[in-house]
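Customer escalation, tier 2.

The customer says the design service returned an amino acid string that "doesn't look like it belongs to this structure." They asked us to rerun it and document both sides in this ticket. The original C-alpha cells are below, unchanged.
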C-alpha cells in the first residue's frame, strides 16, 4: 500500500515524547509498532542479540528486549522479524545531496529503500549558486521528508575568495550565524575547505568558526596538506573536529590521534575506504572515531551500487567486523555530531529509524526501512509517496549568460606565432579528487594553441554564469580520453558552479555549452553529430524530475562519454571537480588556473 505524506514525519523533541513513553512503561499505553523476535545489531555494546523485540510509541523507541504480549494492542502494527537482523537506520556522515543530481525529495526516494534514514548534509553547492535562500530551500524541503536530515551551513562561499573564483553568493560570519539560528537541524559549519585561511588567520574564516562555536555547533573539515604537517594540529586546535579528505591509512590515523573524526569516503568516483580503513584493520586504531561517508554519489551509482548499505558492505569486505562497520555508519556518526540521543542506535528513547536485513549481516541486504516509527520502504521500493516540493522562479532560472558562445570563445592565444610552447596541463586521475600538474610542449599555429582529438589533450574552459563578472578562463586537461571531436559542458562545476566546458574541438565545445545555457543548467555531451543532455533546472545542479527518470538520463550521459572515448569510472563526477580550486594540484576557475601549494592558493599562467 502507498500513502501520501503530510506532516507525519515531524521529529518532536524527546521532552515532548516523555508523557507517552512513561505511560507505555506503566502499561497504560500500547505500542504503535512492534518489531518481534529479530537479532539486534547492538551498536552500543558491539553485540548481536538474538530474540530481541522493539516497541515503538509514536516516533520513539519505548522498549528493547524479549517480546512482551501486553505491549501489543488492537491498533499496534506487529512486524515479524524472525530470521532477520534489526539495526539502526544508516547515517551518512558527510554528503552533498546536490551531487546526486536529485532534489532532496527524490534523493529520499532513492536512499530510504537502501536503509539510509538520515545524514549530515552540506549544501555548499546550492549555497554557492543561490546563497542563503538556496540553503533555506533545501532545509525546508528536507523537513518534509522522512529523513533525519541535519544540514550544515556552507563555510566556503566561495570555496576560496573572489580573487580566485566567482560564485553566486558570499557567506561570512553573519550569514553563518543566521543560518545556524534556523533550528537544531542546522547542525554544523560545513567543510572548511579554506584550510590555509584557518592556519594563516583569515579574518572571515576565523569569524565563521567563532560564530559556529559560540552557537554550540560543530565545525567540519577539509584538509589536504600532508598529514604529517604540523599545521594539521593548528587546524584541529581551531575547533575543526572532523575531516573526510584522508586518502591513506596514515592520513586517517593522524586525524584520530589529534582527536578528530576521520571520515572514510567511498563516493561514486573517489574510492578511499580501501586505503584509509587500514588505520583500523592494519594499524589497530580504535574505530569509534572513524565514520563512513559518501561525500558525492551520483544518482546512477545509487541505483547501480547503493548508498550507505554499499559503503558498509565495502568496509566489511576490507576486513572490518560487521558490527563495527555498522557502528561506523550509525552510532559513531551520531556521536560525532552530538545527536546520539535521537539517532544512531536501537535503544529506548531514540527516534525509531530502524532497518531490517535479510540473509548474512555482511551482505547488508536491507528488506525494510522504518523512519520516525513508520514503514516507508520494503523490498527495495518506497511504500510512502512523498509530496513534491514547489520551487520559486529564481531557483530554476539561475544561468545568467545572455550571449551565445562561439568557436572563437574557446581560442587560446599563444605567446608565439608558430611552433611549440610549454604548457601547464591538469591531468585528471580516475577515482581520485586530485589532479596532477604536468608540462607538455603543445603546437601553436597562427598564434593559436592547437588542440585536436589526435593530441590526447582537451581544452577546459570556465564561463562565469551568476551575472556578476562575465569572466572566463581557458586551460588544458589531460587523461580525459576523448578520441574524436567531443565535448562535455555542465553547470555542475564544483564549487562555484559556473559553466565548465571540456573538449577537443572548439565548435563542438560551443555546441555543448550553448545547450547547457539554453536549458538553464545541466549537462550536455556533444560530438560532431550527436548530443545527449540532462537538464538540471534547480540551481543548475539538480533535476526536478523523478528519481528513476534522472537515473536514466545520468546513465545516458555516462554512455555518451564512453562512446566519445572517455571511459573513466563515473567520469562526469571526476570531470566536474576540475574547477574545484581547493583540491591539489591544478584546477581552473573563471579567473584562471589555480594551484594548491604549500603556502596556500596561487594563480599560475597556462604557458611556462
Amino acid at each position: 500500500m502507498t500513502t501520501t505524506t503530510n506532516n507525519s514525519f515531524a521529529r518532536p523533541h524527546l521532552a515532548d515524547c516523555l508523557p507517552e513513553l512513561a505511560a507505555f512503561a506503566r502499561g497504560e499505553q500500547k505500542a504503535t509498532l512492534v518489531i518481534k523476535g529479530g537479532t539486534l545489531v547492538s551498536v552500543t555494546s558491539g553485540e548481536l542479540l538474538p530474540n530481541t523485540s522493539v516497541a515503538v510509541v509514536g516516533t520513539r523507541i519505548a522498549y528493547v528486549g524479549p517480546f512482551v504480549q501486553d505491549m501489543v494492542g488492537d491498533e499496534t502494527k506487529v512486524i515479524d522479524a524472525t530470521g532477520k537482523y534489526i539495526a539502526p537506520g544508516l547515517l551518512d556522515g558527510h554528503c552533498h545531496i546536490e551531487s546526486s543530481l536529485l532534489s532532496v525529495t527524490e534523493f529520499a526516494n532513492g536512499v530510504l529503500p537502501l536503509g539510509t534514514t538520515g545524514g549530515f548534509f552540506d549544501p555548499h553547492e546550492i549555497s554557492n549558486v543561490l546563497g542563503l535562500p538556496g540553503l533555506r530551500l533545501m532545509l525546508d524541503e528536507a523537513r518534509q521528508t522522512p529523513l533525519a536530515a541535519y544540514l550544515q551551513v556552507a563555510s566556503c562561499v566561495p570555496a576560496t575568495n573572489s580573487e580566485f573564483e566567482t560564485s553566486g553568493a558570499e557567506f561570512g560570519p553573519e550569514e553563518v550565524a543566521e543560518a545556524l539560528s534556523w533550528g537544531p537541524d542546522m547542525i554544523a559549519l560545513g567543510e572548511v575547505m579554506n584550510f590555509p585561511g584557518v592556519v594563516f588567520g583569515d579574518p572571515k574564516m576565523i569569524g565563521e568558526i567563532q560564530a559556529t562555536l559560540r552557537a554550540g555547533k560543530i565545525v567540519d573539515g577539509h584538509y589536504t596538506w600532508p598529514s604529517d604537517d604540523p599545521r594539521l594540529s593548528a587546524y584541529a586546535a581551531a575547533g575543526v573536529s572532523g575531516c573526510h579528505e584522508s586518502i591513506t591509512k596514515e592520513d586517517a590515523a593522524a586525524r584520530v590521534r589529534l582527536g578528530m573524526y576521520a571520515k572514510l569516503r567511498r563516493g561514486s568516483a573517489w574510492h578511499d575506504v580501501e586505503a584509509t580503513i587500514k588505520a583500523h584493520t592494519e594499524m589497530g586504531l580504535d574505530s569509534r572515531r572513524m565514520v563512513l561517508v559518501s561525500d558525492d554519489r551520483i544518482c546512477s551509482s545509487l541505483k547501480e551500487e547503493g548508498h550507505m548499505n554499499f559503503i558498509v558492505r565495502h568496509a566489511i569486505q576490507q576486513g572490518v567486523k560487521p558490527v563495527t562497520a555498522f557502528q561506523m555508519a550509525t552510532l559513531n556518526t551520531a556521536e560525532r555530531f552530538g545527536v546520539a540521543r535521537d539517532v544512531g542506535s536501537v535503544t529506548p528513547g531514540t527516534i525509531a529509524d530502524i532497518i531490517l536485513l535479510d540473509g548474512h549481516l555482511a551482505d547488508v541486504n536491507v528488506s525494510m526501512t522504518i523512519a520516525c516509527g513508520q514503514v516507508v520502504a520494503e523490498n527495495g521500493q518506497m511504500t510512502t509517496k512523498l509530496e513534491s516540493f514547489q520551487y520559486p522562479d529564481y531557483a530554476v532560472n539561475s544561468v545568467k549568460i545572455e550571449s551565445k558562445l562561439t568557436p572563437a570563445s574557446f581560442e587560446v592565444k599563444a605567446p608565439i606565432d608558430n611552433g611549440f610552447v610549454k604548457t601547464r596541463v591538469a591531468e585528471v586521475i580516475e577515482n581520485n579528487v586530485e589532479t596532477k600538474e604536468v608540462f607538455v610542449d603543445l603546437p601553436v599555429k597562427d598564434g593559436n594553441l592547437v588542440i585536436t582529438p589526435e593530441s590526447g589533450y582537451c581544452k577546459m574552459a570556465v564561463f562565469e554564469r551568476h551575472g556578476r563578472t562575465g569572466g572566463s578562463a581557458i586551460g588544458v586537461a589531460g587523461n580525459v580520453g576523448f578520441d574524436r571531436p567531443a565535448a562535455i559542458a555542465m553547470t555542475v562545476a564544483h564549487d562555484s558552479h559556473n559553466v565548465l566546458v571540456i573538449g577537443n574541438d572548439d565548435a563542438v565545445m560551443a555546441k555543448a555549452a550553448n545547450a547547457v545555457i539554453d536549458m538553464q543548467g545541466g549537462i550536455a555531451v556533444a560530438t560532431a553529430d550527436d548530443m545527449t543532455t540532462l537538464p538540471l533546472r534547480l540551481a543548475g545542479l539538480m533535476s526536478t524530475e523523478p528519481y528513476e527518470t534522472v537515473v536514466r538520463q545520468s546513465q545516458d550521459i555516462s554512455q555518451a562519454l564512453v562512446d566519445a572515448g572517455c571511459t573513466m569510472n563515473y567520469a562526469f563526477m571526476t570531470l566536474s571537480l576540475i574547477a574545484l580550486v581547493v583540491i591539489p594540484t591544478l584546477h581552473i576557475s573563471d579567473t584562471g588556473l589555480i594551484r594548491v601549494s604549500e603556502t596556500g592558493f596561487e594563480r599560475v599562467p597556462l604557458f611556462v
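Tier 2 assessment: The sequence is consistent with the input. The first strand starts at residue 3 and ends at 4. Confidence is low (pLDDT under 50) at residues 1-5. Sent an explanation to the customer and offered a walkthrough call.
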